[in-house]
Amino acid sequence: MRALRLLEWRSDPVLTDVDTPEPGPGQVLVRVGGAGVCHSDLHLMREFGAGDMPWNPPFTLGHENAGWVERVGDGVQGLDRGMPVAVYGPWGCGVCQYCLQGLETYCERPEAAPVPRGGAGLGLDGGMAEYLLVPHARHVLPLPDGLDPVVAAPLTDAGLTPYHAVRRSWPKLAPTSTAVVIGIGGLGHLAVQILRATTAARVVAVDTRSAALDLARDSGADLATPPGEGVAERVRELTRGRGADVVLDCVGSDDTLALAAAVGRVLGDLTVVGLGGGTLPVSFFSMPYEMSVQTTYWGSRFELVEVLELAARGRLHTEITRFGLADAPEAYRRLEEGALTGRAVVTPSEE
Description:
Blueprint: E1 2-6, E2 14-17, E3 28-37, H1 39-46, E4 59-60, E5 65-72, E6 84-87, H2 97-100, E7 119-120, E8 123-124, E9 131-134, E10 140-142, H3 149-152, H4 160-167, E11 178-182, H5 188-198, E12 202-206, H6 210-218, E13 223-225, H7 231-238, E14 244-249, H8 254-263, E15 264-272, E16 292-295, H9 301-312, E17 320-323, H10 328-336, E18 343-346
Parallel strand pairs: 7-8, 11-12, 11-14, 12-13, 14-15, 15-16, 17-18
Antiparallel strand pairs: 1-2, 1-4, 3-5, 3-9, 3-18, 5-6, 6-10
Helix pairs in contact: 4-5
């Protein structure tokens, strides 16, 4: 079968032929319908090197995956051939406290996982291929009726990650509250929709690109604005001087983190979602009092079930640009140039 593989750090991926895997006991082979093109992969190609991660190339890219069950190994029940499924991407040990809660991103026994701190497309072969071997059936989630695998694929990260960030701040997102989303890309435009679907908070979107701001408005933002001088004051004016109760920074650069702190409210939440490599100086007077700052990494398996249900009910819509597997390198090129709106999805089964 064909697969888009990262053969070494700081290199472009290569489309090559590899053997089609066979599922062993407890495993599932998925025919890939869609694999999301994520900005995180650009960090693998451009920035990471030996020793930065507890795993190394070569491996097939693609950590946002959905498709159809092709074959199952011995002992797997409830997953029939042809069943549409999504794949939960982080693969932990399965038996530690967090894995048992479905939070395999935070596995506490990484040495017992298929690969430490990784999963599909992150140290192990992912879904930028005709088939994906999933090492345990618990990672394979049947899709709700009517949800297309191509649509479901980016929800496994671009939907799940902001959903987890929003969900943990639900107590602070009352009808009188304001949430700010910085960066309206693959994750950000879904973050806006998740806020609208699950809370009654006012939503402010910030991005440098006019197309992204239009997408934010279409996604339900009450205010969409470019960054720059006066933005923090505008947010404070909108909130009667209080600031935003929750800020989701889907970029994570020095500039966006500074903006996030500037618009935040006392006792608010600032969640860093993006991998922009920025830092945020924290001192007694540099932040609003008791403003919590945290990072997140994906979400739980059970939260993914909730995300898929929201999408099946029409409450989440991913702005998708489709690419065939042969055009996957072009998708990454356009992502790197900032020429994509929403999420690119590679569709091996459509060729």
